[in-house]
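Here is one chain, start to finish.
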Amino acid sequence: MLCWFCVSLYDETQEVCLDAVVTIAKALADANRLRILFALDGRELCVCQITEFLSLAPSTTSKHLSILRHARLITSRKDSRWMYYSLAAQDSAPEVKSILAWVRQSLDRQAGMTSESRRLEKVLKLPVESLCGT
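Its structure:
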């Protein structure tokens, strides 16, 4: 495994391994996965809410979530029958914290994110039970 040391956005020296960088870069290389990170910023969402927000098939949404989870950008927890997702915690690896901060800053500057915010607000107003088919 090829590793090196660098300085993060937080001026911390850290060891970064090439495999981790490649995995994270691949995870960020899809607009729908970036939309998921945007939707999860500051909140936890059920997989049904994420599926509704993306307007994708549940299997496609699950694949995107799996890729983000593998890159350690998001975490999941199961509650009864439902899976809930959130951004990686503040105690996650330094490269994950740096990447999530960069994604937030980048998306905040995008004009098109206003429509995404409105779409997310609509999804959040819907009862989770109606989305999850309970």
